[in-house]
Design goal:
The chain is α+β, with helices and mostly antiparallel strands and 151 residues long. It has helices at residues 16-23, 26-29, 118-139, 145-150, and strands at 6-12, 44-49, 53-63, 67-77, 90-98, 101-109. 26% of the residues lie in helices and 35% in strands.
């Protein structure tokens, strides 16, 4: 059976170390509403987007210049029937060299098409990774406002 987890990939000219550094600064590419540092192993932190979405996360794996994994410990979506949809999901960032470029593969393990939030989460993660995170990696500045402009 085909892997149903949401995934998206970007390819950049920057080195793996720059990609790793950008991933670990989600305040600059995902949300300024993250209450703790995410860049230390076993750190727990909270994300929220207004009253629509809240998550308690934990950074559970960090391999410099190769991989970052966040675990979703708690989650709330304002309009979801099943509030446990994200709970236990792992959000992974896998970095590798592809010739003279660096590839980043983002996957939310557990975010599957049967989730109520799948379409909106797919749309949001695609934008955050392919627009905002890619911009942070390539220009030094994320595009946090893309979401508000489209939402």
């Amino acid at each position: 059976m085909e892997n149903q987890n949401f995934t998206t990939t970007i390819l950049v000219d920057e080195l793996p170390a720059e990609v790793f550094k950008a991933i670990n600064n989600p305040h600059a590419w995902w949300s300024e509403s993250i209450d703790e540092n995410t860049d230390k192993l076993n750190n727990e932190w909270n994300y929220h987007f207004g009253d629509n979405h809240r998550s308690k996360m934990k950074t559970i794996e960090m391999i410099p210049d190769q991989k970052v994994v966040w675990l979703v410990e708690e989650n709330y979506f304002k309009n979801a029937k099943d509030q446990s949809e994200w709970v236990g999901n792992k959000i992974t960032f896998e970095i590798s060299k592809q010739g003279n470029k660096t590839q980043l593969v983002f996957t939310q393990i557990g975010l599957v098409p049967t989730y109520d939030c799948y379409k909106s989460c797919q749309w949001a993660w695609t934008g955050f990774v392919e627009k905002s995170l890619q911009s942070l990696i390539t220009t030094g500045k994320g595009q946090l406002t893309w979401y508000e402009e489209k939402h």
